[in-house]
Amino acid sequence: MVSPEPLPVVTIDGARADAGPETRLVGVIGSPISHSLSPLLHNAAFAALGLGATWHSLAFDVAPGQAAQALAAMRRADISGLSVTMPHKADVVGLVDECTEVAQRLNAVNCIVRTEGMLLGTNTDGEGFVASLARGAHFNPAGRRCVVIGAGGAARAVVLALAHAGASRVWVLNRTSERATTAAALAGRAGSVVSPGARAVAEAVGSADLVVNATPFGMAGASPAGEDPWLVAPQLLHAGQVAADLVYAPRPTRWLVEAAAAGARAVDGLGMLVHQAAAQLVLWTGERAPVEAMWEAAEAADPPGDPEAG
Question: Coil, strand, or helix at residue 263?
Fold first, then answer.
């Protein structure tokens, strides 16, 4: 893979002035944002759909606390849609005109759709994750038992999506029990918390069909060299299970390599990134997303790997 060049810094108003009134502009807001893969994925899709001359995606570096100004510029510059990444997902919930139920429950928006002057906020992270399981492991969560490691924004999106997909049990394991309880509640009656004791963890993981690392542990630079801050040792997994890691750099992560060595089928985090972007593209254009073209673009790049990034 080849590391993509840092994206140029551009403002929303400046992008509209440069593009002219006829171009349909979309983009991603976040900070830092210069290595986001979202514009690459969007523009690869536009090219595959024959829309490259009329649609274009850009990255907009929006400092923490400046989401309101960004959305005001979005309205002013007639931007068709925005992907939203850290640190703005929660702030945007209160800034759009309307939110979908999923975005409300997660208190996080990762996609804004402009429709007849109104801004709709939604969240495609969980949808993207479930789609990545189908493509990467032919795995359908319906009726299956799942363990989600972590309770942050990405983990909560996964918990809710697994419940919506019909998982029979969604266990949440986290170092902070209060956050684990909040995340597990998103799964309703299917949700429960795994206590961090070795026996409870081993029992839950051993009986699961799917185990998801939804923490940043294992991401390049996330932990000191030689340290393994895993809540679930990959050796606990076994044949017949699917192991998914939301981190996508390094690709695959060490946790995923060792889980595969233990017999599990591995699904890395690049799929969630691609499929959540594909779902956004459908909302913006009304066209069927050219997922394979987006995969080709993603696999040719060397992504930064943050499961919360877009």
Answer: coil
